[in-house]
């Protein structure tokens, strides 16, 4: 009975997930005019019904068994959170002062895992790809973030409690209120009102300040907890603002991402690299976002670690020389076609096929998708629960060529952990325009050749008469046009007599045909100057860590109280523990010597000389994910000099000569051997009743 109910719960959960994807694709179709609002409405109604069915099955399981279903996301999340906080993987910051939402402290095992993970990332990407690693300040002058668009556009809508001043994110508040109205069984809304609410829910994310305010007012949304009135919604910039220098006259911000530090250093990095493209630069560091309503632990915080790569490449040639190495990998791809199709499910596909069919825009983007997939497999994320979801057209920035999110399935649903985007030449052009510094590259041809080029010749006299003090800015904007943009302006001038030009600070001016000459000429050229395109993989380390925690957590069969963190050895916080079987000087001395040898081999280890049974000591270290345990017994000091080596997940043991154990564990951690190979080489040790 319970097994059947568990299967029904799993099926109900899958149906909810699939219907959620259906709602998202219908919203996208509605924006493009390809679906009616009534279709979106019906899909949302069906999603609500499926959620109720899932909840009903979970309650039925609890009634029959008296326990929470293993399929219950809340139960798993609560059990895992208990282990993570009790063993101090991470805890809320400033606890003795009541904590501050969105900030977490990593304890000893959390620090070790984070350090191990970032080092694996560095080895996997920076070293493997010969990337140029930089480290830039977190405090960033306003002009940098003005150029990138963060000052003007990095915002969410916020409302405040009219009495207490407490802040809330407007869209979350409205969504919560509307969902509560639909779920209210004591005071159900009419079918007509329910339809109106579902229609509004479908488009909450697209509301502007005025329409958001009207909706909050129409539904009398009030501040949670107090019931007080709320303010009108207003844009809230998510960056932490500060001042630079003792006078406080230079505005700065804590960086919202690490990428801008790489872009502003492009010219020097290009010079360092001998002027050669393509090349990639990388940075690992903390970023800061003043989230209005931080939640979901490490998944939405105000300070977090990013690892970002900016791969600079000629926009006309986005092939990658190492693409054949990943072309046969078959990660789960959730393309636009699959999202908009009937099944709503990611499917495995070779990266080579995805590029050849045009599903992934180019080899370089696909190469980094493949390398990202391999990285996640290396650190212990279940590849069957990871997918790469392609952005739908309406989700993409106007300048982007193609974007994919690396998503991992957790109890919170599919969590975006990595963004992989072909950002074209947008970033370098933006910073070049604002700084007036040339951020281009030069490609020298093997032989000079005759080419047709586009020449833009501003008429200074006409520009001066028309734009006065803005003449210089308009002239620079015209001269900065690339060939395609220049020809587009030329076509508009010929057809309409005027064309709109945007200057680096965002101002727009109308130029007339008499103000500029745009023509094609044939010239002998030795090379070409161009603004490189950027392929950007951006990793959220905290999010990846949490997803890995969920995927690695399990309990021993038959004993739900024995939690195990099944970390891969390469990221485990402690690689081995050393246990003297009993408290005897000879056993303690050998255990201490083995601990020193492990440390000398670069292996973090713990030595436990407490009087607890070996089984209890195993259980304690299993809970923090230690993959290997060395036990010193009487055979070690009075017999053949071997010690017991235990592997955490299988709980099997072998006897290894004491002098070899550090080398064996080092090889296991570095993936130079496997536990199966070690078990075949060394004699097995039967576990005693007290061992487990």
Automatic annotation (TrEMBL):
Residue stretches in coiled coil: 40-67
SMART domains: WHEP-TRS
Biological process (GO), any one: mitochondrial glycyl-tRNA aminoacylation
InterPro entries noted in UniProt: aa-tRNA-synt_IIb (IPR002314), aa-tRNA-synth_II (IPR006195), aa-tRNA-synth_II/BPL/LPL (IPR045864), Anticodon-bd (IPR004154), Anticodon-bd_dom_sf (IPR036621), Gly-tRNA_synthase/POLG2 (IPR027031), GlyRS-like_core (IPR033731), tRNA-synt_gly (IPR002315)
GO CC terms, sorted: mitochondrion
Domain spans labelled Aminoacyl-transfer RNA synthetases class-II family profile: 79-569
GO molecular function: ATP binding; glycine-tRNA ligase activity; transferase activity
SUPFAM superfamilies, per database record: Class II aaRS ABD-related, Class II aaRS and biotin synthetases, S15/NS1 RNA-binding domain
Broad enzyme group: ligase
Keywords: Aminoacyl-tRNA synthetase, ATP-binding, Cell projection, Coiled coil, Cytoplasm, Ligase, Nucleotide-binding, Protein biosynthesis, Transferase
Its EC number(s): 6.1.1.14
Reaction catalysis annotation: tRNA(Gly) + glycine + ATP = glycyl-tRNA(Gly) + AMP + diphosphate; 2 ATP + H(+) = P(1),P(4)-bis(5'-adenosyl) tetraphosphate + diphosphate
Keyword Coiled coil in record: yes
Localization annotation: Cell projection, Axon; Cytoplasm
One of the Pfam families matching this protein, by short name: WHEP-TRS
Positions of the WHEP-TRS domain: 8-68
UniProt family annotation: Belongs to the class-II aminoacyl-tRNA synthetase family.
Summary of subunit composition and partner proteins: Homodimer.
Name this polypeptide is given: Glycine--tRNA ligase
Species in which this protein is naturally found: Chlamydomonas schloesseri
Lineage, opening ranks: Eukaryota, Viridiplantae, Chlorophyta, core chlorophytes, Chlorophyceae
């Amino acid at each position: 009975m319970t097994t059947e109910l568990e299967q029904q719960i799993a099926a109900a959960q899958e149906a909810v997930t699939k219907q959620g994807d259906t709602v998202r694709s219908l919203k996208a179709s509605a924006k493009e005019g390809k679906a009616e609002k009534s279709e979106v409405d019906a899909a949302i109604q069906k999603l609500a019904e499926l959620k109720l069915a899932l909840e009903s099955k979970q309650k039925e399981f609890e009634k029959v068994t008296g326990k929470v279903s293993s399929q219950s996301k809340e139960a798993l999340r609560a059990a895992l959170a208990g282990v993570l906080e009790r063993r101090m993987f991470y805890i809320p910051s400033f606890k003795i002062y009541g904590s501050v939402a969105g900030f977490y402290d990593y304890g000893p095992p959390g620090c070790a895992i984070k350090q191990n993970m970032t080092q694996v990332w560095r080895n996997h990407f920076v070293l493997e790809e010969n990337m140029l690693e930089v480290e830039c300040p977190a405090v960033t002058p306003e002009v940098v973030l003005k150029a990138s668009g963060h000052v003007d556009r990095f915002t969410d809508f916020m409302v405040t409690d009219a009495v207490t001043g407490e802040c809330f994110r407007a869209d979350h508040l409205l969504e919560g209120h509307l969902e509560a109205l639909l779920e209210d069984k004591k005071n159900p809304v009419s079918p007509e009102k329910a339809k109106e609410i579902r229609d509004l829910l479908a488009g909450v994310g697209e509301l502007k300040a005025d329409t958001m305010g009207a909706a909050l007012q129409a539904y009398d949304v009030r501040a949670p907890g107090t019931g007080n009135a709320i303010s009108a919604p207003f844009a809230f910039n998510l960056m932490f603002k500060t001042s630079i220098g003792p006078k406080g006259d230079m505005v700065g911000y804590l960086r919202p991402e690490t990428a801008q530090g790489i872009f502003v250093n492009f010219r020097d990095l290009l010079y360092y690299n001998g002027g050669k493209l393509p090349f990639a630069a990388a940075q690992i560091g903390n970023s800061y976002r003043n989230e209005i309503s931080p939640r979901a632990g490490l998944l939405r915080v105000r300070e977090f670690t990013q690892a970002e790569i900016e791969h600079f490449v000629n926009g006309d040639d986005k092939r990658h020389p190492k693409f054949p190495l990943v072309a046969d990998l078959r990660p789960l791809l959730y393309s636009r076609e699959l999202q908009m199709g009937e099944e709503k499910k990611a499917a495995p596909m070779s990266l080579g096929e995805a590029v050849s069919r045009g599903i992934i825009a180019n080899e370089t983007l696909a190469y980094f998708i493949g390398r990202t997939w391999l990285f996640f497999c290396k650190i212990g994320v279940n590849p069957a629960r990871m997918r790469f979801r392609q952005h739908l057209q309406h989700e993409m920035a106007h300048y982007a060529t193609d974007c994919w999110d690396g998503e991992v399935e957790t109890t919170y649903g599919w969590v975006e952990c990595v963004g992989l985007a072909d950002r074209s030449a947008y970033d370098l052009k933006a910073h070049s325009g604002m700084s007036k510094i040339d951020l281009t590259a030069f490609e020298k041809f093997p032989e000079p050749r005759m080419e047709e080029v586009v020449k833009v010749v501003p008429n200074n006299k006409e520009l001066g008469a028309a734009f006065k003090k803005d003449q210089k800015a308009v002239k620079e904007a015209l001269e900065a046009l690339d060939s395609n943009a220049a020809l587009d302006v030329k076509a508009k001038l010929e057809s309409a007599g005027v064309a709109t030009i945007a200057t680096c600070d965002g101002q727009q001016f109308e130029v007339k045909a008499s103000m500029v000459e745009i023509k094609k000429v044939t010239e002998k050229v030795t090379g070409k100057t161009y603004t490189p395109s950027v392929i950007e993989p951006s990793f959220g380390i905290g999010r990846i860590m949490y997803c890995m925690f969920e995927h690695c957590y399990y309990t021993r069969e038959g004993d739900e109280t024995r939690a195990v963190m099944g970390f891969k050895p390469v990221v485990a916080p402690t690689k081995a523990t050393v246990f003297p079987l009993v408290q005897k000087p000879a056993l303690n001395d050998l255990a201490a010597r083995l601990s020193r040898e492990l440390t000398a081999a670069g292996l973090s280890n713990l030595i436990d000389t407490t009087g607890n049974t070996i089984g209890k000591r195993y259980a304690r270290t299993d809970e923090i994910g230690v993959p290997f345990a060395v036990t010193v017994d009487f055979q070690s000091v009075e017999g053949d000099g071997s010690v017991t080596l235990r592997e955490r997940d299988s709980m099997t043991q072998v006897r290894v000569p004491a002098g070899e154990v550090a080398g064996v564990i080092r090889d296991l951690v570095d993936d130079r051997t496997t536990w199966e190979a070690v078990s075949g080489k060394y004699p097995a040790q039967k576990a005693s009743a007290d061992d487990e």
